[in-house]
Design a protein that fits this description.
With 96 residues, the chain is an alpha+beta fold. The longest helix has 22 residues.
């Protein structure tokens, strides 16, 4: 379940519907089998019993996994360019 949830970020549509995109039908079937447990947990901890999860299959989803330090740094830099300021301020080196 964890690996399926890490594929893509869920999007809240309105106040009660969570849209979740998955790359194929197999992932959707795996997710659907565990969806009731997840919904029960979310509903009880968020005190919102109207929550629902809508699963959409989008085969064009690509995974953004980082494999080495430089790839991870580049991914973080895409998300927040200020990481370069942090790296230079503290004299951090990726090769160390």
């Amino acid at each position: 379940m964890e690996s399926i949830l890490l594929i893509n970020d869920p999007v809240l549509n309105g106040s009660t519907t969570i849209h979740f995109e998955l790359p194929n039908e197999g992932s959707k079937l795996d997710f659907e089998s565990e969806k009731n447990g997840l919904l029960g947990y979310l509903r009880s901890h968020l005190h919102n019993h109207d929550l629902s999860i809508e699963v959409i299959v989008n085969e064009s989803i690509t995974s953004n996994k980082s494999f080495n330090d430089q790839d991870r740094y580049n991914r973080l830099h895409e998300i927040n360019p200020n990481i370069e300021l942090l790296r230079t301020t503290f004299g951090l080196d990726l090769n160390a």
